Structure formats: C-alpha cells, structure tokens
Amino acid sequence: MLKIEPIHPDPSQADKLPYSPSIRVQGGADMLFISGSTALPLYHAHPHVHEEHVLPDDIREQTRRAMDDIKLSLDACGLTWRNVVKVTKFLTDMREADAMHAVMGEYFGDWKPASTMVCVNNLSAPGSRVEIDIIAVASPAD
Questions:
Q1: How far is CA 15 from CA 58, 67, 94, 111, 112, in A?
Q2: Does residue 29 form part of some domain?
Q3: Element of type H or E holding 66
Q4: Does 19 fall in a domain?
Q5: What is the pTM of this model?
Q6: Which CATH number does the domain housing residue 93 bear?
Q7: What is the block-wise mean pLDDT of the chain (142 residues), using blocks of 10 residues?
C-alpha cells in the first residue's frame, strides 16, 4: 500500500505556505517524471515554428495552459493532482509568483506537493513566462 503525506516540521505553520516543505512516500511506487511544460501546446514543431509561439502575456493564462498540458500526462497514466509529490517552477519574473500559485491552487486544491521555484532570464519557448515540471507517484500496477 502506497502512503503519500506532507511533512511539516511545525504543523501550526502549514497554512502559510503554498507548498509542503517535504513529501514522504512510503511503500513501493511507480514514478512519473513530467517534462517541463510551458504555455505552448504539448505537441509542437521542432525546430520551433514562430506561429506556434504566439503566447498570451498573462501569467495566469500561461500557467493554466502549462497545467492543462501536465494534466494530459497525469490522465494518460490514470493519476490525479494528489499523486504529485514534487513541482519545480521556473519564472521569468518572480513578482508573478503569487498569480502563478493562485492558478496552480485551482488544480491542486488543498494538496500542496513539495516545491522549488527558480527565477530565470529566459525559457525554452520565446514569450514563455513560466515552465513547470512535476514528479508524481502511484502504487505499482498489479
């Protein structure tokens, strides 16, 4: 049996964070590593085609599109947001973190996986302001 739980050294402070300081996974698990997702469609041309890189300027919409692409991979494996144990977020403007977290909260609800956030100058897709990658776990298939 797989057990996934947040670990809070001080549980009285847990509501102050949009993430968990750590997530403990006990028992055997299958792991899913989801590549970084931007606001681009999941499947797009390589080398990049300029017309595919017309992205909304709004960080909320870019985050929503990235999360929708991530959900495609979760759905393909029969997983939910509660299977996600680690999120890495790359932003080009740290001032947009609260708006990004608000949108992510629409997907995760009260579940807060472990998380890292990094501010970068540029991302892989021109015009991208956010890129998100995720690690999820599930009980091994029978």
A1: 27, 23, 21, 11, 10
A2: no
A3: helix 59-76
A4: no
A5: 0.86
A6: 3.30.1330.40
A7: 84 82 84 90 74 86 96 93 97 97 97 96 90 92 52
